Amino acid sequence: MAAGTPITAVTEPNGSQPEINSGVRFTWHTVGVTVFCISTALMTRHPAIPSPRTFHTGTKIVAVGIEWGLFFLAYRGILASGLPFSDAMGKFWDSLTEFWRDLKNALLVVVIIYVTTQLLVRIRPFNFTVSAHAKTSLQYLVIVLVVVSVGYTEEVVFRGLLLTQFRLLTRNLSAAVILQAILFSVCHGGNQSITQFLKHGISGCIFAFVAIRRNSLWPAVLAHGLLDFLAFTL
Questions:
Q1: Are 132 and 53 in contact (CB under 8 A)?
Q2: Which of 51, 151, 160, 182 has the greatest count of CB atoms below 10 A from its CB?
Q3: What's the predicted TM-score (pTM) here?
């Protein structure tokens, strides 16, 4: 494999798991992202807000700022690991045909995660908290900002940096997928119900699967953004 090739996105001709690319190395930015995720869970152990939640525009704008701060840390980590950022993201669409192909994959991911969530909600005594829905024009504008930011930044952080780094540390692709999915769940807060934690973990595994299969983060970015948009509007 050539230097700079993502270790999570290369498949060998015989179908075996890819070898670790010697051009990619461990970076301490990974520790920073991990500490951030754990700290988020520890700082949000307060009782869950009654459902449905109230829509707070200011809170969501602050959350977007935090997302981009975490993205910058992951971005620097990807570069420090010796992996070009364009390789971590995967090939961008050169045509509408490529875009529609990834959009179809993203829609399939949305359906799978939605069905999984509905099944988890029906397992008692698990609880599910409904997200605050946008109602005004300003709130819808904020939601667009949120879903674009979250869909892009979180995929770079968890599937762009952490998946590759955990694959490097464990030398096992399945272990890397599970570890980044656990942190993905943890980062969503310490006051989650078991349902929410499982839902986020399963979602993290599915996002990782489609990123690995497509050798690109873009289908997962689309799916992630669509899911968040539906959660805040429907």
A1: yes
A2: 160
A3: 0.88
pLDDT 10s digits, 208-227? 999 999 999 999 999 999 99
Q: Name 216's bridge partners.
A: 90
How far from the centroid of its chain's Cα atoms is residue 82's Cα?
22
Handedness of CA 20, 25, 29, 31 (dihedral sign): positive
> Is 6 buried (19+), middle (13-18) or exposed (0-12) by CB count in 10 A?
buried
CA–CA separation, 81 and 30 (whole Å):
10
DSSP structure class, residue 31:
H
Residue 90, beta-bridge partner list: 216
End-to-end CA distance of the chain: 45
Q: Pick from 160, 154, 179, 185: which is nearest to 66 by CA?
A: 154
What confidence tens digit (pLDDT) does each residue in 29-66 have?
Answer: 999 999 999 999 999 887 666 566 678 888 899 999 99
Residue 115, Cα to own-chain centre: how many angstroms?
18
Rounded-to-integer distance, Cα 22 and Cα 168, Å = 9
Q: Enumerate the domain spans of the chain.
A: 29-44+53-233
How many Cβ atoms are within 10 Å of 50's Cβ, its own excluded?
9
Helix (H) or strand (E) holding 52: none
